Amino acid sequence: MKRMSSAGKKILIVDDDQDARIALFETLSKGRFQVMAAENVGMALEMAADNEPDLVLADLKMPDGNGLDLLKRLKAKYPGLPVVLVTGHASVDTAVEAMRLGAHDYILKPFQRQAVLETVEMALSRQRLTPVTSVLTAARRKRGGAKDKPIVGNSEALRKVLIRAKSVASSKATVLILGESGTGKEVLARYLHNVSDRSHGPFVALNCAALPEGLLESELFGHEKGAFTGAISAKKGKFELAHGGTLLLDEIAEIPLHLQAKLLRVLQEEEVDRVGGSAPVKVDVHVVATTNRDLTEMVKEGSFRQDLFYRLNVIPLRLPALVERREDIPLLAQFFVEKFSSQYDKETKEFSEAVRKYFLEYAWPGNVREMENLVERAVLLSQGRFYVLEDFWDDAPPEAVAAAPAEVAWQTAVPVDSPHDQAIQTFTDDGGVLPLKDVERQMILHALQKTDNNRTHAAKMLGISVRTLRNKLHEYRNMGIVA
Q1: 155/134 Cα distance (integer angstroms)
Q2: d(CA 370, CA 352)
Q3: d(CA 272, CA 175)
Q4: Which of 410, 428, 429, 344 is nearest to 378 (CA)?
Q5: Which residues on adjacent β-strands are paired with residue 364?
Q6: Which domain holds residue 119?
Q7: Is 249 a domain residue?
Q8: pLDDT (tens digit, 9 = 90+) per residue, 430-468?
Q9: N or C: which end of the chain has fewer CB atoms below 10 A?
Q10: What is the mean predicted confidence (pLDDT) over 302-323?
Q11: Hey, which residues does 107 pair with through a beta bridge?
């Protein structure tokens, strides 16, 4: 068999059946993947946290839970992690439920080695090649660091930025991320790092506005022992700490002029001079800078060096304000509801019609950060069946200022990352949840459409028997749904 293009990726097998674990381990190891195995849900969650798998292959039934429970918990913590379920007891209902919860695919026992390898490769290829899904997670948990925030959205405006970001992520060209406060500039910077060939190196961030001028130089470039009062030992600066990785210079416009000259030299020569040092230190760092200010105006005013601006602005990326991607508002709102409901162990509720309308029309001056804070408040304070406007603001909410474009509707469905149609919805356009039987019917009819009404192929796609498919179609004829 030819070498898999995803060779080297880490796969976590979860199955309480030792024979099945061994068979899957041997199959995937021969596919040149790095394979780990867990025998229950608890062990799987621990191994996922410690080993950062690229894909999880889980049995549907286990002694301390089931594959759907595991799927739900993994997706809550690692939204971008592909999960494939394996079972010997398939049904349409469980297949629909699995995809509703975000499963990539479904494998039936007894499985064929080639089918397993193809399914795994397809899942990893989708993760590798698709720059945008409803929730984009560049990486889940970095060793020794906190879990990254996902990029949420599926709008054309966001899609263009992410495609461009991914195309330049592995270059040495300096990236300047522009955008209003709260649009997620640091999140995009982490995405750049995580999709680059430096993803296994350090990601180091420095907020240039958070430090007094006297400390900023030391934080950036480091210092030697005795360089100034209080320098009791030598210290590496952020450039040295980011060697082999990415350095984020947040709020770059706040760097004073005399340090701008030193920063420009570091960017050009790729070496730093520690404060009080006698010789430069070579560094290999991809620099990403962010600002919400107009640097061209600052250059005209003389408060920002023109040569440094040109050096930073090699690859400019502008994050759109939230009002420029209104179609992402429902996805973001639902994402934050699920995040904080899980974090605070609260019931997940739906938005009232008034909230949905207002969210789409509101100007969002604080962008995504403002929404995150408001939704967190609502999750904590809401007492009713739905989230209402009073849950987000103490008094009357601010004026909405502008109506949303007519084509923007409140849709919170997340496209399913699976071989099946990504347009299958589990939420209605008005925010209500479709009954499972309706989702099942959509799925069956779509599978038949994709296979030109070939029942054998459609049944295989759905993971059910031809007889079950035939019975379902007979039921739909009696209901007058199909001819």
Answers
A1: 9
A2: 19
A3: 20
A4: 344
A5: none
A6: 10-130
A7: yes
A8: 333 344 455 567 677 777 877 778 888 777 766 677 887
A9: C
A10: 94
A11: 86
